[in-house]
Amino acid sequence: MSVVYDCAVEQDRLDGLAAAASAVRAGRLVVVPTDTVYGIGADAFSSSAVRSLLEAKNRGPDMPVGVLVGSWTTVDGLVLSVPRPARMLIEAFWPGDLSIVLPHAPSLAWDLGRTSGTVMLRMPLHPVAIELLREVGPMAVSSANRSGQPPAATAAEARDQLGESVAVYLDGGPSGDPVPSTIVDLTGDTPVVLREGAVSLTEVTEVLGTEVRTR
Fold first, then answer.
1. Residue 85 belongs to some domain of the structure
2. DSSP alpha helices (H): ranges in 26-126?
3. What pLDDT does 128 receive?
4. Which residues contact 41 (CB under 8 A, 6 or more apart)?
5. Burial class (CB in 10 A: 0-12, 13-18, 19+), 16
6. How many domains does the chain have?
7. Sign of CA dihedral 24, 165, 174, 146
């Protein structure tokens, strides 16, 4: 049976984070607040947990899952290399609403879907999410909703859609406007904005000081 923890209450927050960490380590799913919308998350290195996440969302592997990290330095162990443009974007926008796509380290044993050897990374600007990530390490996270339904802006909305498929719901209050993160692909010679969200194309271009294409 899933459990909801009110993270506005200190003891509930502590209990909820402990329960969520235990669930993630056991290969189960959790819902966490982020600075965009609520996310459904799992251990990024557990293929079965990621499959469960996709099944809960009624989504296939053709739409791969991104990875949230709890610190800048975590990225170094997840990707083939961190090019200068990636460092510039990380320093400018992390933690925050910008996701970066890079070639992942070939040694990693994970299955996030059909990624073509890449991974989408982000460090969220939310204390509950950050604390959980620093406890359990990188998590595969997608918006907490069934495919085709609106992203959840509250823990209650997430539970209405995902129900008992999730072990722990961490309620961090309303997420605000459900604006998605901006996604920048740095796998080629020229940066490409795959999705313009909370961070504008102009802001990305100003930080990089170079041509930025859109898809």
1. yes
2. 47-57, 84-93
3. 97
4. 24, 29, 30, 31, 32, 53, 68, 139, 140, 141, 142
5. buried
6. 1
7. positive
Give Cα 178 to chain centroid, integer Å: 14
* Whether this model's pTM surpasses 0.90: yes
Half-sphere exposure of 151 (CA within 13 A, CB side): 21
Q: At 140, phi and psi to the nearest 5? A: -75, 125
Is residue 212 included in any domain, yes or no?
A: no
For residue 36, tell me if it sits in a domain: yes
Give the range of the structural domain holding residue 104, as residue numbers without chain letter: 3-178
User: pLDDT below 50 — which residues of the chain?
Assistant: none
Alpha carbons within 13 A on the beta-carbon side of 13: 12
Backbone angles phi, psi at 46, to 5 degrees: -105, 105
With 0-12 / 13-18 / 19 or more C-beta atoms within 10 angstroms meaning exposed / middle / buried, residue 148 is exposed
What CATH number is associated with residue 75?
3.90.870.10
